[in-house]
Structure formats: C-alpha cells, structure tokens
Design a protein that fits this description.
single chain; about 220 residues; alpha+beta; Endonuclease I-creI; 5-stranded antiparallel β-sheet; globular
Length: about 220
C-alpha cells in the first residue's frame, strides 16, 4: 500500500489544487417558479474546486492505487496528438465534487508540504471553507474566492475571469439570478440592461472541451 508521504511527494511534483470560476446560466424550465422563491440562488458565476494529478499513461497502475486509497475521484485518459510513437498518452486523476474535495482536504491537511504546493493547498482549503459555508453565493464571498484564486499556481490572469470583470458584473446584476432566463427569446427577464449575447459568447480560457475522457476499468 502507498504511504501518505509517497502520495504527498507525487502530488508535490504532478498535482494541482485549483479553483475554477465560470459563467452560470440556468436554462432549466420551471413548472412552478414560485417554489424556488425561498431558495438562495447562485450568482452569475459558479465556483468549481478541483484537485488533479497528471502524468503519462504508464502511471495508470499508480493512479488506480491512489484513487482506491483516497476513495474519491475518477481517472481520465487523453490520447496523444503527436505523431511521435515514443510520446505516451496522458492520464489524469481528477476530483471535482465539493464533498470529494473535502475528503482530499482532510487527507492532506495533516501532512507537511515541502514546496509552493503547500501554499496552494492552504489557499484552496480556504476557498473550500467559503464554499462549504455557502458564502460563495454572496458577492463578498465569491470576490474573496477570486482573491485567493489569484494567488494560486502562478496562473496567467489573461486566461480566466479576472476579479474586476466579476465585480463589475455582480454590481450590475447583484443577486437576481439567471433562473429567469427565457429559453425562446434568449434573454434575461427583468433586466434589459444586461447584455446576454456578450455573456453567452465564448471567452478565452472558458468553455474549452477537455481532451481527457473517463478511463473505464478493465
């Protein structure tokens, strides 16, 4: 069986704790919208925590063992695009659901990171705490997540929603949510000033289809 220290070392080199923020459009028709009046709706952005380990396909037995030991997540395979026969396919172990990310957090919180990955994990854990409390459904909560996210993984801010864009849109349309999205007319009700066409248009760094597909067990 793999030790916790072995998994920690592997994650320090090949793992990633991340927070994704993407556009949220609720297109589901409501037979009885009145029943949702007392439900706290999300903002026009949704928050997606994720834990990922990526390596070459030959690491699959190791990934299977990690997945079995942690008890959460799934393994995905990406076929190589290169014509070089020596280049292996990529494989990815991915955890996305909040309840599963909390299990990952509990696994690593008592371990001692040796690299910058430890700081990423702390920031990621703080984001999970905000999501767990439900504060990501409030303006200040999601902005706090943005500030924490921007300190993680040395990521290029040009490839994601930046905090200024998010705050601007939340100020324009603070909490009245997209549950009132008219599917036929492709517009939001009760908010004529909101540019839905621009909102639905593709944005760099978002809506990209992953090249990873789930790896089924033989």
């Amino acid at each position: 069986m793999l030790s916790k220290d072995y998994i920690l070392g592997f994650v320090e080199g090949e793992g990633c704790f991340s927070i994704g923020i993407g556009r949220y459009i609720d297109r589901k028709p409501r037979k009885n919208p009145g029943k949702r009046n007392n439900i706290k709706k999300p903002h026009i952005f949704q928050v997606k925590p994720m834990f990922v380990i990526t390596n070459v396909e030959s690491s699959k037995p190791l990934f299977d063992e990690i997945c079995s030991l942690l008890g959460v997540g799934r393994i995905y395979l990406a076929k190589r695009n290169s014509k070089n026969p020596a280049e292996q396919n990529a494989i990815q172990y991915r955890v996305q659901a909040l309840n599963e990310c909390l299990i990952i957090r509990d696994f690593f919180k008592e371990l001692s990171f040796k690299t910058q990955k430890g700081e990423d994990f702390k920031l990621w854990s703080e984001c999970l705490k905000i999501i767990e409390s439900g504060r990501h459904l409030e303006k200040e909560g999601i902005l706090e997540i943005c500030r924490l996210r921007d300190k993680m993984n040395f990521r290029n801010t040009k490839s994601k929603w930046n905090i200024r864009e998010i705050e601007s849109l939340l100020n324009e349309k603070p909490l009245h949510q997209t549950a009132h999205f008219d599917q036929n007319q492709q517009q939001l009700l009760h908010n004529n000033s909101f540019n839905v066409s621009e909102w639905l248009a593709p944005k760099p760094g978002n809506n990209k289809q992953s090249r990873f597909v789930v790896q089924t067990t033989d």
